[in-house]
Every structure is written in structure tokens, then in C-alpha cells.
## 1
Amino acid sequence: MSVARQLRRYRVELLAVLAMVAVAVPVGGYIVSKQRLRFPWEQVYTLRAEFASAQAVTPGQGQNVTVAGVTVGEISKVQLRNGRALVTMEMSPDQLRAVYADARMLLRPKTGLNDMSIELDPGTPAAGRLEEDDVLPAANTTPNVHPDEVLAALDVDTRAYLSTLLNAGGRGLRGRGADLRAVLRASAPAFARTRRITAALADRRAQLRRLVGNLRVLSQAVAGQDEDLAELISAGNATFGALASQEGALGESVRRLPGTLTEAEAALRASGRFARRLRPALDELAPAVDALAPALRDVRPLLRDAEPILREEIRPLVRAARPLARDLRPALGDLDAVTPDLTSAFRVLVRVVNELAYNPPGEEEGYLFWLAWFSHNANSILSIEDAHGVAWRGQVMGSCSTYQDLAATNPAFALLVGVPACPS
């Protein structure tokens, strides 16, 4: 029996088989494409990262890598290297072109059965692109933390107390979900205030750290300026002495200051009307100011003509006045000798004000910024007073040998202490 005859005999069955094959091939290809099968023509690149723990990570099970919830690759290999899990991932360049050196990875479960996935933050281009031979360090990755790991860190008593707390809490809160929700809602303002308090404490800690740093910089700067510091203290002493000698005048000035401020306030209030009327006049002067530049250009010939007069007439007059100026110098010298302390005091005062008002560039602040802190600390030190005046707060410390020597040389000291300062 020939082949052609057999084909004609079974042509219906053969056509049915061919039809099933024609339908099965695209259906099978579609199913295989959805089963994470990579075809040879698909491009991928390899990314490797270290994790402190890769528990429940199983390559080949479709555990994927996502960015903002979008799958960009899958886990292909896990191996141990230097006591850490080295996870290899195959990334799709169509979904994510590159991963950078400051990338962050979080290993987390997608389901309660620990179907793991890696949540990826690809980083920024400024940090540099990760090549296939590079490994993202464990400092940039976060493993999944299981509840049993947390409970394993607790001792037996703590686990028993926690179990009792959860059981008792479950019985106590049974059927009282609405009450618990109301308590949490009522606690929201307290939590908000607590957050502000903790933020203020954190800011206070940062300010204290900056204060210590500034004190260190100030101490280093002053350490090499002993002579200048001594001169500053001496000049400050002279300044305060000069101010103390003018105590009456200063007191009179302070007494007159309120009236002066009142008059100044009234003058400023009255000048408001003048300022409102001055604005139209200034608007009218605008054309004259605009025409001033051409006028200055036009006056240039006059200045050129006046230059010979200044050279030939004014300059001889100045030269002739020099003997008079030389005769005037002794008188000015005598006048300068009368007020040397005041001159030195104001020179030092200008230097002190410049030093205090200087604000260095950068995050560091000047001395005026910390003056409020100094005033606050001084107020705290001098916050105790009685009928005899202000008392300085302080602390006296000494060793046992010091107390024994003082008691031996001065019996009144032992009576003052009343009890032995150190055990015998």
C-alpha cells in the first residue's frame, strides 16, 4: 500500500492532528512565556548584592525584583561568601536600564508563606553605575526580620511576660475595638505634642554639639593668641574703668533715654506725613536725576579747564599752609595726650564689637549667636539669692587625703564637717 493511498485514507485524522498542533504551538508558546522562560534573544544584565540573611530566598521559584511595585528582574542564584548571602539577580534592561552605587535593597515577603521578593531603589546617577563585576555591599541592603528572630532575642522571663500581656490584652480588648479606636483618636494630639517635644530635644542636642564645637574652635584660636588676649583684657579693664569714671553721666543719659525715645517716636510719627508728601516731590525729581548723567558729561570741559587752576593756584596755597599745620601739630599732640585712655578704650571696643559681630561663613555661628546661651547659663548660675544678695552655685570636690590633712591642720574644719569625710 503506497504512502499517497494511506494519506488519502487517513486524511481526516491527519488534518485533525495538524489543526491541533497548529493551535497547540502558539498556546504553548504563550504559556511558556508567562512561566519566566527566557528566550535566547532576550537581553539581561546581572546584578549582585550582599545580604546579612537570605532566609526563604529560593532561586527558580519566580521570586522577583521590583521597583515601585513593577517587576524589573528576578532572583537567579544565592550563594554563601564570607559569612554573608550573595544574591545574584537577572535584570531586564527594558524595564530598568541601570542600577547605581547608592542603591538600596529590601528583602521582604509578598505572602504569608514567605514568598520573597526584593524591593529595589536604583539610586542616583551621581553615585556611578554598578557594573556586572560589582557587588552592592550589605550596608545598602536590609534583610527580612522574622517575628521568631525578635522573640528569640528575649529571655525566658520576658517572653513569659509578653505572652501574659498579649493574652490578657486580648481578653481585655475583646469586643471593645470601638473604645480602643476612640482612645487612639483622643491620643493623637498628645502624640503630636510628644513628637514636637522630641524634635525640640533633638534640635537642642544638635545645638549643644555645635556649641561644643564652637568652644573648641574658640579655645584653639585663643590658645595661640596669649599676648593679644592679655592686651584685650587689659584694654577691657581700661575701658570699664573709663566707663566707671563716667557713671554719673551714664546714669543721667539712661534717665533721659525714655524721654528721648518718646520724642523720637513722636518725630518719626510726624515724619510719616512728610514722607507721604515727599514721594510726589521725589517723583518729580526723577527726570532731573535722569538728566544728571548728560550734565556730568557736559561738565567735563569745565573740569579740564579747572585742572590748571588747581595745580597752579590751589596747590601753592596748600604748600604755604604747611608751616601753620606743623605749628598746629604740638597743640593736637597735647590734646591727644589728654584723652589716651579714651582713645585706647574705643579702639579696643571697636575690636571687641568687630570680633563679636563677625559671623564666619558656613554652618558655624558668630559670638553674638551664642551670647543668648551664655546669658541663660549665667542666669542659671546666679539664680539663687537670699537677703544677703546673690549666691553663686558651685561644687567643691576633694580626695579623702585632702579632707584628712585639712582636719589635721585645722580642727575647726572637722567641727564644720561634723562627720568623718572618709571611712576609717
Note: The beta strands are 45-51, 64-67, 70-81, 84-91, 104-109, 116-121, 135-136, 141-142, 384-386, 389-391.
## 2
Amino acid sequence: MNTVRFGIVGIGKQGTLYTKFFTKAGSVLKGAKLTAVCDIDEGRRAYAEKNLPGVRVFEDYKEMFASGLIDAVMVETPHYFHPQIAMDALDAGLNVLCDKPAGVYTKQVRELNEKAKQHPELLFGMMFNQRTNPLYIKAKQLIDSGELGEMKRIVWIITDWYRPKAYYDQGGWRGTWNGEGGGVLLNQCPHQLDLFTWLAGMPETVTSQLATRGRDISVENDVTAMCTFRNGASGVFITSTHDAPGTNRLEITGDCGKIVIEKGKLVFTKNAVPEPEFSKTNTVFMGKPKTKKITYGGKAYYLRFRKHPPQHLGIIKNYTDYLLGKTKDFTAPGEQGINGLTFSNAIHLSGWLGKTVTLPFDEDLFLSELEKRKAEETAANT
């Protein structure tokens, strides 16, 4: 294979953005070609016919899968449909690059992962574009290398997702249990939930509070979640879509120092001596370990250390290059899509039940609670 022929299922806002990558970033996406798109909406198909010359337009994605025109499928539909479309693509012998989230609930994504295992000859990837960010890559290196030491705490405050009433008014599926399957956790935060578990691992317990503030929507737009990890470390995840101004600050503390990522920079404050060792040997009242600050960030850092083009374009390029054998580094394996979703589902379940949830949680109970909210929403709108 010298060229990966892509087909996109769903050419709404995000899918259309990706079509422009193929048409306007050809030199970056060398070896990738958009050959087909699909959408059930007549208006979107008309847009594609007019603006995507040479690209075949389909109404039925299964017809596109059987056309012989594509090698890989990008799934850009509402969340509930991601797993089934991805599984159908795999069964059709096609590689899959699925947008976030992998699905709405882990039970359906677990089925997708099992399907992917049945097709080891195909490449299953997730559009986790934040994994191309050099700052998060550096944070993972500091953690995995042991330079940070054993983790004590991870705290992420990400409340800069501000969405006014007009945002939710633009589409009937937005801000609904039936359309999206959740609010800020399912729409805005899958990338951060992925990174949270990518960097810190999977929590063992989750306790959360969910709220809907200032918007006429069914789903949550304000979340505070606390969690614990196997080694005794703690975690906090706070997010919202109604704070103005908002914050985006990730802080990870270990025995050997602290990582802070904020405003485009990573600051690693490194202890001269690991904290447990210092505490045992120090004889000075109120003594503290000596520290050294190392800063990563800024334009020069990004240009020097970026492995891929930024964001979504970087994931598509990495996915293409991996398929073509140009790299052995696969940034976002599809089976990892369940990790952040597991954390997300646990946060929802804890908030719904009003109690701490232990992982692995009861997936049937989660689905039952989700269906209750969908039914209540349907009843309220009839």
C-alpha cells in the first residue's frame, strides 16, 4: 500500500473540518487521500458534492464500506453510533480511526475492543489529538522514567470550556441524554479524561458531584470528582462549561517533585532529594527539600520537540504513517479509548447514585441508570 484511501462517516462540523485537512494539507498528509464521504443528511451530501470534487458521496455508510473505494474509515457521527459503525467497518475489512469518545458506555466499547481483537490485521485508532501535545508527552516521560517519583496526587481543573445558551440551541442532540449520552464529560472532556488515565493510570474508587447550572439542558455541565489509586495516591478532576473566566491547570505531585502544566508551559519543580528520604534525614525544624525549576514550553520548544503536526492533523498523519510502515510509534491505539470512558462512566455513576463507586463498576447498573435519564428526558419533552 502506497496510499491510504480514507472515507468519512458523518460530515457535520467535525467531519467537514477533516475533509479540509485532506484538501488543504496535502503536503503534510502525504500518503493519505480522501476518496469517499457519507452522511444521512441531504444538505451535507449536497455540500460534499459541491465542495469535494473527485470524492464519492454516499447516503448509506455500508454501501461506502462495500464500494472498494476506501482503506480506512473515520467515524464522525454522534457518540452513540461510534461503536457500531466502527465494528461494521472492521467486519468489512477496513481500518478504523474513531473520534472521541469511543462510545457512551463501556459495555458497548468493550464489545468494540473485542471485535478489534478479532481483526489484528486492521488498525484501530482513536482521535486523541491531545496526545500530540509535547507538554503532555513530556509529562508522561517524567512519570514513566521515574523522574517524578511515586505519584502522590493529580489535580486537573479544566473549566475553560465555556458554552453559552446559543451553543446548545444550535443542535437538538446537544445537551441531551438521548443525543449525546452526557454533558461536559462526554462532549468536551474525553481528551482530558484520556490524558488523566494515560498519565496516572486507572483509579480504584471515584466519588463525584454532578450539577447543571445556568443552562436549560438535561445533562451535567459542572463536575467535581475525587478518586484514589492503588498506591494510595489521590486525584481530583473539576470541569464545567459555565465558568467565565475558566481555568486549565494540571498539577501532578510525586516524591521527587511537581509537574504543573498551564498556559502553554510545563514547569517541573524537582526536589534535590526525594521527599521521603529528606523527611527521614533532615534535622532542621520546618526544613524543606531544595528544588530546581525546569520549564518546557514556548514556540521554540514546540518546534524542536513536537513529534507530529499539532492536534487532529497530527493523529491523522501518525495513523497514515503507521499504516504505510513509515513509523513504529502509534500514538493513540483504539483499545485505549475505553480507559477515559471508564473514568467518565464511574464519575457519572457516582454522581447519580450519590455514593463512592469502586472500579470495575457494574456496567449493567450504569446502563440502567442511563436509560432512566433518557426516558425521563423523553417524557419531559412530550
Note: The chain has a mean pLDDT of 95.
## 3
Amino acid sequence: MNIDVSKVQAFHGHLCPGLAIGIRVAEQALLEMGERPGDEEVVALVETNNCAVDAIQYITGCTFGKGNLIYLDYGKNAFRFIRRSDSKAIRIVMKPDAIKPAGAEESALMKRVRVGDVSEEEEKESARLRQQRIETILSMPLSDLVEVKTIEPEIPPRARIFNSVVCDACGEKTMEPRLRLLEGKLFCPECFEKQMKS
């Protein structure tokens, strides 16, 4: 499969190990679900909100705005894909030992880089180690990196378009089903919370 890493990088803003993982997960998803299926045909349920998700959005076409990318706040490098036409459902999980964790010295160096407490040489060494990790992820066989599990499909409904109604407090239009009624007035979620605290 030919994925232009530079385009994914441009979409995300930088190339990092997390984005590399997302590229490989998206690659596996397309192998399982078909090359970039039709609009909203595939739904992705992502169990993390890290860099990998941007690659999944860019490559698979599953996006938050279309309603076929759903975030599950589980903190796991695990990604579910469901094809609507035949209910095929899979969960792609990172193999726990696929990527060798950073050693104590490398971890300490990365920590110092994050706080800006490194020499120019140390910064170059950190960048080299990071690039090496990225290249390992991008080049290793998918079967060594991820595990694909068949799961029971829980197909979410297609995204709906709702009317917008003006909030009686802030005057901003709000999606109708998100409005809350209080003492005969309609409030957006934010204004409703403020009303409840006052």
C-alpha cells in the first residue's frame, strides 16, 4: 500500500512515533475494510486521543466532522473499524512488545528535551533516536506491530443534521438536541451549567 507519509505529516504538523503508529493502523484498516471506502461507509472508534488519530482521519477518511470518527476515552492504542454495508467489525490493537520501550538513559534524555535542558549535541541525539523509532514503526511488518481481532459490531447511527436554536442567555445558535429547558427558557450546555451554579 502506498501512503504518502509527507502528506500525513503536513496534515498533522510533525512526524512522530504516534503518527507513525496511526499510519500503520490506518494501513491495516484499509487492508481489512477496503481501499478508502465511500463516505461514512466505515466508522472508526478510537480509544485514544493521541497523534495516531490524525493519521487515521487523513488516510481512512473517518473524521470527527462527518460523525464517522468516535472518540472513546480509554487511553489505549486500540482502534475499532466497522463497515456499515456488511457489519464487518474489527479492533486493531498494538502488540505490547512490538516496539521496544526507551531505556532509562533515552527516557531521561527525552525528559530533558521536553523541558529544554539539553545541549545541542543531546538534542541531535534525541532527534536521531526519535527518527530511528519512527523508521522502525514504518518499516516493520504489520503482523509484528498490530493484532487484528474480529468484534461484535455496534454500528452507531449515521450523523444527523439538527436545527440550530438561539440560546436565551448567550444568544448563540446551538444544536437543538443539546439545548436544556430551565424555567421556560432554552439554554446551551455552557449557559445551563452557569444557571445551575448561580
Note: Residues 164-197 form a domain with the Wheat Germ Agglutinin (Isolectin 2); domain 1 fold (CATH 3.30.60.20).
